[in-house]
Amino acid sequence: SAAAATLSVLVAGLLYRFASVQKSRDDVIEREQLLAVLAELSRRFFHVCREVQSIAKAVRSKIEATNVSVTEQQIQEQLCRQCKVHAKLEEIQEEVARDFGFTPEAVEAMQRRSTLDVEVQVYTEGFKTMLNDALSGTLPVLPNTEVPEALTEERVLQIMAAAQALQVDKVTEKVGRTRCTLKEIGAAMGDAQREAWDEVFESNQVSAEVYYSALAIYSKNPDFARETRNLEEAFQ
Questions:
Q1: Which of 142, 161, 172 is nearest to 234 (CA)?
Q2: What does the longest C-alpha to C-alpha distance in the chain come to?
Q3: Fewest 10 Å CB contacts: which of 20, 85, 93, 166?
Q4: Is the pTM of this model over 0.90?
Q5: Is pLDDT above 60 for 19?
């Protein structure tokens, strides 16, 4: 009958709208999950890139001092092998995916479905930029990081000086009154460095990632870069 046909059309329309709303909600949930995964991936890979940058800076200084003939591509390939960049990235991808209840393949599929999402693109490009900066010997910046207004250039330098002073106190406390082997001294210095920076970050209510990103951004200023070099040289 006409009434039955009309009712069928109405029901079909309602079901379609319900499915559309459900899909929209599922898309929002997936996007939030993906952004959380990418944020954690970026955070962990950021620290890998900081290690790479330190090594790259030293390697490039040696190459420059010895006038060795080598291409930029060769330098980057050698650094990637030496620092095991790809192996570390794969390990991080597997760990983070597992922590969020996904497989690396599932995360990649979500990324493919979100290629037009601006925030996802920032993370994707940020990964490449972090690694390229690190390989060139430049301090990396964590993608999507906002530096608080209170974390000025002066404040960053103050935090660095405080961490260095605290590190000296901790080393003295650990080995100052005992006879230690060189290995024990090295271990104590490493522990003191980690403890000092952790305490300074906590007391200043700033994360390591935000601090080091601010340091990277401000280091583009020659005057600031000179100040940090002075602090580092005085500390050594």
A1: 161
A2: 99
A3: 20
A4: no
A5: no
